[in-house]
Amino acid sequence: MGAIKGVRYCQVVSVSDDTDSDLIKVKILPEDSAYGDDYSKLPYAFPLLPKMLHVKPKVGEGVFVFLTEEDNSMSQRYYIGPVISQDHRMFKDKFLYATSFMRGTPFKPDIAPRTKSEMNGILPNDDDIVIRGRKNADIQITNDDVRIKSGVKLVAEDNEYDMWFNTQDPAYVKVKYHPDGLRKKEVESVSYGGNKKFNVEFKEQKEQVKSTVTVVADKINLLQNHSKEVEFKTTDNADLITDDELKRALDEAYKLPYGEKLVEILSLFIDAFIKHTHPFSMLPPCNANGIPDLRDKKTEYLDNGKMLSDAIRIN
Q: Do 149 and 76 fall within a single domain?
């Protein structure tokens, strides 16, 4: 293989590749002028990015092409790209507009995205390492956390360069280490019940927290691949789990109970069970301490559905 002697900025004209090698075709001028619009005769360009990182340019985008032999259209071609001029143009930066950062071109960069307040939070900080999707999904690594984000950035349907931070319904997983601790060790009194007849207090030891994993979304599904209760297909070869299967999970998977409310109603049940007495076998209790409270709590939590979370489901 010869030494790389030339670098060209070229437009991508084809991404069809029957070898699955991420090969593309570009038109180098003036060397490729003889081919006209017959791209089938153009030689392929091979990616310089390692296969562990998959980024394939789109037709119409620009790439930097390295030639092993200057002025030889049949020399070996390697490419790096696509070339994206600014952070808000990830979806597709057209060949000519992507040159706005180059000297001597007639195109000027757009207004810096960071000057727009609605875009605060969707662009990476200088110290971050980010794997960025074309539209609204990223993996961001900061100094002490990893964020897997989807929908944090919203993009207008009629203009892929118009975007803003989503303050309503983003989905993300945040894995964070807290070097100084999120909170110090402490002991507090916790009470369940809330009425004079029944009140349980105990001391809860809060340990220092130094690592957290936070999952945020409108709905959260915790699904196992093989369930004896309700099974869902979680191995779709295109989407892992399809939208139709997700809709079914939202309807058919089990709701998780709120822990504190479950403890409260169980405590009321135990209290009523222990304290009530019967005059004789099979007769109604003569001392029904706690039973009215249990009935009220059953109506509030179970009959009205307030004990189960509609946001988190399992199978």
A: no
